[in-house]
């Protein structure tokens, strides 16, 4: 059975999140464009550009995550056209203490994708948390 574009994008993002949770750098990089642009929670505030710079952001995150942090998709919505797609998701990302302190806080994820040689690749990734003062 052939998967729809939406299903292909959803699988790509779910596999990426599973790789992040597992600390699997090769899995995290899979499905990303060579010219990826990522805006992340930690600096640099101008973001990172290119797969090499993207790769360098993950080891510190994996070290933090190894202290017992979760990285789990709670909701994921995908819209796909013939050659571009976008998705947005909410993730539980934090330590048990983070969840005790702010149980409703979620990591916001926005992903922009394009088709290259018939397969979807992530061209843009944006992670953010709401300002702590905004949470009720």
TrEMBL record:
Domain SnoaL-like spans what residues?
9-130
Superkingdom of source: Bacteria
The protein's name in its UniProt record: SgcJ/EcaC family oxidoreductase
Which species does the entry assign this protein to? Answer: Streptomyces kaniharaensis
- Organism lineage: Bacteria, Bacillati, Actinomycetota, Actinomycetes, Kitasatosporales
């Amino acid at each position: 059975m052939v998967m729809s574009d939406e299903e292909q994008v959803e699988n790509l993002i779910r596999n990426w999140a599973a790789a992040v949770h597992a600390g699997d750098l090769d899995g995290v990089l899979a499905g990303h464009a060579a010219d990826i642009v990522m805006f992340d929670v930690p600096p640099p505030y101008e973001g990172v550009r290119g797969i090499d710079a993207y790769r360098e952001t993950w080891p510190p995150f994996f070290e933090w995550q190894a202290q017992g942090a979760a990285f789990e998709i709670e909701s994921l919505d995908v819209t796909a056209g013939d050659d571009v797609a976008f998705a947005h998701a909410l993730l539980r990302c934090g330590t048990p203490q983070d969840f005790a302190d702010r149980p409703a806080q979620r990591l916001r994820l926005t992903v922009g994708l394009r088709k290259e040689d018939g397969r979807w690749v992530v061209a843009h990734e944006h992670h953010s948390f709401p300002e702590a003062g905004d949470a009720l």
